Amino acid sequence: MPENRPARLPSPLSGLRLRTAAVLAPLLAGLLLMSVPGAAGAAGRGADDRAATSAGSAAARAGQDAAPMPRRGTAHAGSSLDGSVSAARTASNVASVEAAAAVSAGPLGLDVSGHQGNVDWTSVAANGAAFAYVKATEGVSYTNPYYSQQYNGSRSAGLIRGAYHFALPDVSGGAAQADWFFAHGGGWTADGFTLPPALDIEYNPYGASCYGLGTSAMVSWIKAFSNEMYALSGRYPMIYTTTDWWSTCTGNTSALAATNPLWIARYASSVGTLPAGWSAQSIWQYADSGTFPGDQDVFNGTTAQLQALALGTGGSTTTAWPTVKKGASGQTVKTIQYLLNAHGASLTVDGGFGTNTYNAVVAFQSANGLDADGIVGPLTWAALVVTVQKGSSGPAVSAVQSELNASGASLTVDGSFGTNTYNAVVAFQSAHGLTADGIVGPLTWRSLVTS
User: Fold this and answer.
1) Residues annotated as catalytic (active site), given as ranges
2) Which one of 36, 47, 252, 321 has the lowest number of neighbouring Cβ atoms within 10 Å?
3) pTM for this one?
4) Alpha helices, DSSP H only, in 115-209?
5) β-sheet bridge partners, residue 393
């Protein structure tokens, strides 16, 4: 494989397979009392498991200082756990992990990256996998060379699948990494078999554990990524992390629990204590090897609930920016023309996407480092929209007024954001489940152009 996996200690899972059945039998028998991961006996083992995970995380961070740094791009979901908890885990604990998954009522899954290369998805599906997450990107320069085979292949085999991004907050801002991710596989559609895009945020495999950021700066970075993904795709991303990292590097913030599903990593007999704000995880990564290639996961629910997670819920969470190109006509084209004029174009706002509008779009895309294809998709929309509020004026305000009128308001389209426009914005936001603050930012813009 072109990627060299970071050095890791021998896995206890490999050693476990060499042990006799007599050693494993009593461990597995006790675990058959459990109906879901961590449901029975979790209280008695919880403190020891948390200590093991914490000790393993500390070992991982200490090991980073002693061992050569892995090559950029080689990180994956669980990099900070690879081999790090091996010394802390006992044979019985590892047996508990495998048995817990075996008796779980939840759909089983896996997550893969470039380390796994081309995956035999037919075999994976035959072995019982229901879902998969595939690494798409890392930072703002790396893409998984096996992404297409893994992402499309898993779907072809009947799995529900999603894409994840490995965060490098020391490389660029959160929004920039969301843009990179979205442009290279991190999208979402409400088709029932695409999981929400996921953000992998864990201990830095290449350097400082928290990427050189304080807790408040880290929370701001994650929010910037999350909000940008929501603006681009219509879904807040799943967050993959460990409780230890979340506590250390975000101060155990609860700020994202209301919007972002949780994918918790913990190689133990239960999920243990979750980060602040989350009462339950959506996915538990419980081991780094097992039945399936890559890491082993289990969904916390039924197959129907897994499908519902993929589908999303009603309202603005299932709508994404429209894709508009030459030949289109109507209100959305008028909005594009107004916004292009707000950025310096001189178009007649007639709702017709002709040659002049096409040329203006290409010029705007070129000036903003976008693919100059003349098609207004999510990334172009994100660059085009201008945040406006009471007191603002100009073509962007005219676009808001025109959109509001298309949704039932009766405003004069004069480009002046006065009291009437403010009241109409608040009413629109309230009706669409948005924060009713009268400010037209990316989320309100997206709802306006998709209503």
Assistant:
1) 111, 202
2) 47
3) 0.60
4) 121-126, 147-156, 174-183
5) 416
